[in-house]
């Protein structure tokens, strides 16, 4: 009997492999030169974890940036000498998006890089896929 529900087709093996390879390449290109928040290189076991790959493959640009602005940026201190020509949260997001562009990260992965920057480089260790999905659910319910 045919399945009458509309479901997105799962990517085939070759496509899944290509997507995973691209996600790892994006993570390497963006974080390869960055330092771990407590010093040294970002451990590969964290950088290439299943959760990091899922962030890269599944984070919507708009919702990911809103998550960073609403939940992550308020956790980092604004420097006292910050020139307030624009809002602090906008400044941080634009700076990180600019870094993603310089690293040639596709727009589909840019928000994930912004979120993961807070986890790996700024020490927001509680940043998890579950936290993001819970926030996304709450935002969707409120809308």
Topology overview:
Layout lengths: L12 H19 L12 H4 L2 H9 L2 H12 L15 H15 L4 H14 L8 H14 L1
Helix pairs in contact: 1-3, 3-6, 4-6, 5-6
Protein architecture, described:
Helix content is 61%, strand content 0%. The chain has 143 residues and is mainly alpha-helical. It has one domain. Helix 1 (13-31) crosses helix 3 (50-58) and helix 5 crosses helix 6 (107-120). It is globular. The model is unreliable at 1-6 (pLDDT under 50).
Features of this protein?
7 helices; mainly alpha; 143 residues; globular; 0% strand; disordered N terminus; single chain
Structural class computed from helices and strand pairing: mainly alpha
For the biggest sheet, the summary is: none
What is the strand content?
Answer: under 5%
Helix content: 55-70%
Integer tally of domains: 1
Q: In sequence order, what are the helices and strands, one letter per element?
A: HHHHHHH
Spatial separation of the terminal alpha carbons? 37 Å
Task: Give the overall shape.
Answer: globular
Number of strands: 0
Number of helices: 7
Provide the low-confidence segments as ranges. 1-6
């Amino acid at each position: 009997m045919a399945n009458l529900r509309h479901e997105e087709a799962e990517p085939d093996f070759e496509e899944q492999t290509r997507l995973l390879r691209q996600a790892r390449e994006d993570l390497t290109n963006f974080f390869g030169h960055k330092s771990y928040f407590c010093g040294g290189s970002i451990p590969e076991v964290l950088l290439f974890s299943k959760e990091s790959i899922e962030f890269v493959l599944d984070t919507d640009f708009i919702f990911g940036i809103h998550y960073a602005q609403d939940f992550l940026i308020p956790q980092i201190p604004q420097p006292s000498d910050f020139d307030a020509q624009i809002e602090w949260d906008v400044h941080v997001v634009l700076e990180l998006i600019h870094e993603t562009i310089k690293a040639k990260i596709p727009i589909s992965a840019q928000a994930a890089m912004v979120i993961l920057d807070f986890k790996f480089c700024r020490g927001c260790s509680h940043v998890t896929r579950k936290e993001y999905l819970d926030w996304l659910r709450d935002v969707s319910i409120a809308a």
